[in-house]
Design the sequence.
């Protein structure tokens, strides 16, 4: 087998010392134009590549950053990772990505594994920023890091949306359309502190507008029976006319499930999402949602980590009031008025009801 080219080979080929080659390749000191030309030519001729292991042992850095997010199935995280990765790449760092599938145990193990690989920093979204064992281990080791989408605990940096205010804006949007009975659908709160904070803001917004506390449906990330769960939820809350889903991915799945149950959106059930993913503008009806800028937040989190590594001032965080906007869409409309014969607006067909095929279930609607 061909032996790997060493820095000594490059030095011999270029007619100089090893220290001179190292100085040229690392740009760590003065060197003449002639020397630089000979070293670069030798590198090209021999196909020399730096050993990252050797370089990391010399410099005590690996030029790698750990990036931990729940999932790439949700385009929001994919966009945020892209923003972070581009920023790190321009600074000479490689990103090591791990998805946790919203599982706190996988999250902790992923952080431990990346820490063992001696990453120089972390950008991460954790299940719960106040209770994450992985985050605590990073804090204890004083590894440069920045949270992404999580609300920052004390003494932490985070690039995130003002979830509470955004959710209150959703409550206002429902009220403006005349809805009086609404619900909230989200991943289980133990898996997502963002969902919990959005529910709290939504409940506060409903209370401020004189509405009852929103009905709550929590599901697992890998739930394959959303239609069944939604059906039971609507039976238990027959006056409900609108649902706020904690992210656009869930909102689009809820629209599909509602149609499977024989319900029209927004004729029978209005749905609002959260994130503003592009596909929400391409469906019919278009998705009403909270719009965010995940790529910008990913880049901002990366710049924050780099500032800690370099000892420079961190970038300014975005104004919380400007971290989101509401986008009207066809999935939000006034609730259907009562029929002339006194029956309420929507009825689940027994043939479309996966849990009670033989029951005719009427969903009450309020004016």
Sequence:
């Amino acid at each position: 087998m061909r032996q790997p080219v060493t820095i000594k080979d490059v030095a011999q080929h270029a007619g100089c010392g090893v220290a001179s080659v190292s100085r040229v390749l690392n740009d760590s000191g003065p060197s003449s134009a002639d020397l630089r030309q000979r070293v670069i030519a030798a590198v090209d001729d021999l196909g020399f590549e730096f050993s990252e292991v050797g370089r990391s042992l010399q410099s005590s850095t690996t030029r790698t950053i750990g990036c931990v997010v729940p999932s790439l199935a949700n385009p929001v995280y994919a966009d945020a990772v892209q923003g972070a990765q581009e920023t790190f790449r321009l600074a000479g760092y490689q990103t090591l990505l791990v998805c946790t599938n919203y599982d706190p145990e996988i999250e902790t193990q992923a952080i431990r594994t990346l820490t063992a690989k001696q990453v120089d920093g972390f950008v991460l979204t954790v299940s719960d920023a106040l209770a994450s064992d992985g985050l605590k281990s990073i804090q204890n080791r004083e590894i440069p890091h920045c949270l992404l989408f999580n609300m920052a605990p004390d003494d932490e940096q985070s690039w995130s949306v003002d979830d509470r205010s955004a959710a209150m804006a959703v409550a206002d949007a429902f009220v403006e359309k005349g809805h009086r009975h609404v619900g909230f659908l989200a991943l289980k709160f133990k898996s997502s502190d963002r969902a919990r904070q959005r529910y709290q803001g939504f409940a506060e917004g409903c209370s401020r507008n004189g509405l009852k506390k929103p009905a709550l449906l929590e599901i697992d990330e890998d739930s394959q029976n959303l239609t069944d769960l939604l059906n039971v939820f609507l039976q238990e809350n027959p006056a409900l006319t609108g649902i706020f889903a904690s992210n656009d991915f869930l909102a689009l799945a809820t629209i599909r499930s509602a149609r499977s149950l024989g319900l029209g959106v927004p004729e029978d059930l209005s749905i609002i999402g959260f994130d503003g993913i592009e596909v929400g503008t391409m469906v019919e009806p278009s998705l009403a949602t909270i719009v965010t800028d995940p790529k910008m937040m990913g880049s901002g989190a990366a710049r924050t980590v780099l500032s800690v590594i370099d000892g420079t001032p961190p970038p300014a965080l975005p104004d919380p009031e400007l971290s989101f906007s509401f986008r009207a869409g066809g999935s939000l409309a006034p609730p259907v008025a009562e029929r002339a014969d006194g029956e309420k607006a929507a009825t689940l067909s027994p043939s479309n009801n996966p849990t009670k095929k033989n029951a005719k279930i009427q969903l009450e609607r309020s004016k």
User: Anything to note?
Assistant: The first strand starts at residue 64 and ends at 69. Residues 294-310 form the longest helix (17 residues). The CA atoms of residues 54 and 62 lie 10 Å apart.
